[in-house]
Inverse folding.
């Protein structure tokens, strides 16, 4: 006898939006996440249960369960302060210190002054001062990295402690970045940090001064293949890693232009766990014959539409073009008939083979053709569709002659259907282009701070993009190119993350949302450690750890023309007031002590003030 399972009650969710109604409306996703988290926690199925999340700017989200006999009721209350309330809360006010007082923000485990030393400036830190910053890139790239003083940057001088015992001095590292055609083996200008500065799980804060000198671009070029072919054509990456979003985990999208580069963080490209695609790589020997050399690959998704300036894997026909196979034009037979059927196979996301579409084309007479014969047709707008013969059947006259032939035709390109053409098709040998000119997407997992989509900032933590799509992206508004900003990301043990940024001489922005609490995996597919970096991240898809560039499937260089100063790391989430105090350190010359400095000053008789 089967165990009795009581029928599930209908669920009713009531939304109560308070304060700034529009801002609260935009936080519905956070409310849904908190509801799901509460349901996971309520393992004993308590009829009365609640959970609340509060944020520094006064925003709070509360979920309450009130299970009745006939209905499972939930109320989700979201309060978002009005603009006036936020401005009041975000406007920093600090008490005037007495002569023997100093400000102290405890818990900084690493601080890099980027001036006279590349060592961690925090004495007796759990992160040894021997963990130095390392310049990334070739000798030529590293030599392009320069530094400037805060005076040269037009920023206030650093503050001094009471009695002038300690003065905050720091430099600014200029990372010029590189064009999007730099070879992966050269990499771009960047800095590499100790792998201990940000914990892979648990709370942390990252703070730094930044300046973006040019919008970041997406690296579409496959420079190594372009140089290998060396015939005047640019080879673009067929595989493109993206910061992806999804509404239900089935369809995926990205915000254009899709560029991303680390301020301080780790990017880790990651395939989908399912979904087969058909792929034709635009280089030898695959492009000798795309039809016979196409590969069945798992872990990718076909890109449906590209960004405005995104190049397609396509050129006008040329025998030298890598995007056309080298099959010769042969004898062509043109037939007029009618399309009589259409169907699709492997349409599900978790498919067992790449998506395929077929149609039947009926023509009078005997037109039996070898399987694999190439077929083309023209749409009413003049676009060409490509296909191949899959099978055929014949209908016979009474005398045994063939009355008509029905050709089963398989579309060659993804969702570009031959039966959308006029019913006059051409059959015979001719060159084909790549099977999907938009290319294929994979996801990006990330932790930390990043420039994104030209001149925005992305902050957060995503450990498994395919299953953590419920977490919203924390993305700033557009930065002013050439302006200095204090940028700070906090992350607490419950996954509540916040991005705070303040422009020098300008306004501030505070964004908050829930992120995953899972442990971040900081190794590549070949188990190589991925370090925390600033300025650049570079990757290649390769058959093996030591594969030659000629065997690579794609390579990308995520690079930013940027400046960075006074990076700080904490293994706790700072309060908004503490973040604003660090802004005062950068933009107002206020002295803020770290732990070892506070100990020295207290030993000298001075009094710390904590926010």
């Amino acid at each position: 006898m089967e165990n009795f399972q009581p029928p599930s009650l209908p669920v009713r969710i009531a939304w109560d939006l308070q304060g700034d109604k529009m801002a609260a409306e935009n936080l519905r996703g956070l409310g849904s996440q908190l509801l799901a988290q509460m349901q996971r926690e309520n393992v004993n199925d308590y009829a009365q249960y609640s959970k609340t999340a509060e944020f520094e700017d006064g925003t709070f989200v509360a979920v309450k369960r009130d299970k009745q006999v006939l209905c499972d009721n939930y109320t989700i209350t979201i309060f978002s302060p009005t603009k006036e309330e936020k401005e009041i809360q975000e406007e920093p006010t600090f008490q005037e210190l007495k002569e023997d007082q100093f400000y102290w923000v405890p818990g900084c485990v690493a601080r890099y002054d980027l001036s006279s030393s590349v060592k961690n400036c925090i004495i007796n830190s759990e992160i040894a001062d021997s963990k130095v910053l390392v310049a990334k890139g070739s000798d030529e790239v590293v030599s392009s990295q320069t530094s400037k003083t805060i005076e040269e940057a037009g920023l206030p001088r650093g503050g001094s402690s009471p009695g002038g015992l300690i003065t905050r001095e720091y430099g600014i590292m200029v990372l010029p970045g590189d064009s999007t055609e730099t070879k992966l083996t050269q990499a771009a200008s960047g800095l590499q940090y100790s792998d201990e500065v940000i914990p892979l799980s648990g709370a942390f804060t990252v703070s730094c001064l930044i300046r973006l000198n040019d919008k970041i671009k997406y690296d579409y070029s496959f420079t190594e293949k372009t140089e290998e072919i060396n015939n005047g054509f640019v080879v673009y990456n067929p595989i493109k890693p993206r910061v992806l979003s999804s509404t239900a985990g089935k369809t995926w999208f990205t915000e254009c232009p899709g560029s991303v580069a680390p301020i301080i963080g780790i990017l880790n490209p990651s395939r989908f766990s399912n979904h087969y695609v058909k792929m034709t790589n635009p280089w030898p020997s695959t492009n000798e014959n795309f039809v016979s050399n196409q590969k069945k690959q798992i872990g990718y998704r076909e890109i449906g539409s590209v960004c405005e300036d995104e190049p397609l894997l396509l050129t006008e026909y040329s025998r030298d073009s890598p995007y056309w196979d080298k099959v010769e034009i042969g004898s062509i037979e043109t037939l007029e008939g009618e399309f009589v059927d259409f169907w699709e196979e492997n349409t599900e996301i978790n498919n067992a083979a790449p998506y395929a579409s077929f149609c039947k084309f009926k023509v009078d007479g005997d037109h039996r053709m070898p399987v694999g014969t190439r077929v083309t047709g023209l749409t009413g707008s003049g676009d060409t569709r490509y296909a191949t013969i899959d099978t055929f059947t014949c209908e016979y006259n009474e005398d045994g002659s063939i009355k008509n032939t029905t050709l089963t035709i398989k579309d060659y390109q993804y969702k570009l259907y031959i039966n959308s053409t006029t019913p006059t098709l051409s059959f015979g040998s001719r060159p084909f282009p790549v099977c999907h000119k938009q290319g294929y997407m994979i996801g990006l997992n990330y932790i930390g701070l990043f420039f994104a989509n030209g001149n925005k900032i992305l902050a957060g933590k995503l450990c498994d993009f395919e299953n953590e799509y419920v977490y919203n992206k924390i993305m700033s508004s557009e930065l002013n190119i050439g302006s200095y900003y204090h940028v700070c990301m906090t992350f607490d043990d419950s996954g509540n993350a916040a991005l705070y940024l303040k422009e020098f001489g300008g306004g501030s922005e505070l964004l908050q949302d829930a992120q995953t609490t899972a442990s971040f995996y900081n190794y590549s597919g070949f188990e190589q450690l991925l370090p925390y970096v600033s300025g650049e991240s570079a990757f290649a898809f390769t058959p093996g750890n030591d594969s030659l560039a000629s065997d690579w499937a794609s390579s990308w260089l995520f690079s930013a023309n940027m400046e960075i100063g006074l990076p700080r790391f904490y293994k706790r989430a700072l309060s908004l007031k503490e973040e604003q105090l660090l802004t005062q350190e950068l933009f107002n010359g206020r002295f803020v002590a770290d732990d070892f400095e506070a100990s020295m000053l207290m030993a000298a008789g001075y009094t710390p003030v904590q926010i």
Observations:
- The chain is about 10% helix and 35% strand.
